[in-house]
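ugh ok fine here u go
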Amino acid sequence: MTIFGNSVFQMCATGAIGLAIGLAKGVGKPFFDQSSEPCSKPYGKHPLIHLHEQAESSDFLSDEQIYESLKILNPTVCSELIGKVHQLSHGQVQNGASGRNILQSIREIVSRQLSCLSDTQKNQVYGSIYQIEKVERQLETNDPEYGKNHALDNIPRLIRALGRQGHHLFLKPESTPIYEGFEPPRLETRSNCFDLGKPSPNRGKISYINGIGTTFERARYDAYRLSDSVAQGKNLECVYNATHEAYGSKVCESILGQGGISTTPVRLLLEQWQDFFNSVPLGECYLQICYSQGAIHVKNALDALPPELRERICVIALAPAAFIPYCKGCQVIHFFKASDPIPTSLATGNKRVVDASWDKAVVQVPTEGEETYNPHDPFSPNYLSAFRGQVQHYLQHNRLDLPT
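structure:
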């Protein structure tokens, strides 16, 4: 993304007009609208996965323990699950249920959710099961039917696969607005999640989200560059922030995002983070690398997290179009070049570049020897050298190297 001279004014004017029109029309629809596919912002481990783990490790759970585990489920589904558990107990157990009956009840509810999907949706879920096994357990089979044939072998894994495809299994609807209108059906490659199929880090996961004006092929290429140049060849689980046919539309999306209105990439980030919380030990941290407009999406996604989960997200923001405030509670560090107008002039919170000498979460990247590089290019040698140490520290300690 290169923005200089008059184009800055033109893009700001375009975005401002779009913002006014969008707000006048009431931009934003409930991401968690009950009339659409059930989904929710990340609360940590999915309640059914949490209850499944409890049931596997305990012979008996009280009704109180069950309700506590399921308190963020839709109340109707929660009551249905309790009813199934008690039905399986044949009235022989009062005020609780055996772990075996709880596991069977969860299996029935999740299986029913899968059976209600269309064939296309089922195939997407089966593909996610295959990807989970391939990346996390180094599955070696190339059997195209693996996901279908083994869908019910591991119920927590199936819940995660459903979540990766946006089917969040009866969680209560929330109020986070996600506006999907910037990605029309005719868009050749819509925003999506992808990974590199490389070995995962020993602890945590690393993700990358690109900026404006990036094709899917380029975003994938850049993710491989990050993996090879700063992440010891480890896997990156990425969000592709789609390029629009009209460049001005993407700028308008950026300005809306700076105003707190979330779009499709924010939903994908939340789903990716939810999958992480579902699959790792409590307290393990996630590294999110973001570039340019990607920082706007990350900031808005962080707003949807409760504080205890926000603390588990580490952020490296490269040439950011938004600076993430300290009050977000996550570990974050920003990198910029003084000659780059995006972070220095157009980003929200850009006054922090003036304070970079004492703001330890803002690092100015030197420009010496890089006069021929676009200052907004995060893959220049100086840029890579500046943030490589943070990625290395994360891989070793599961945290960024920031002063307290």
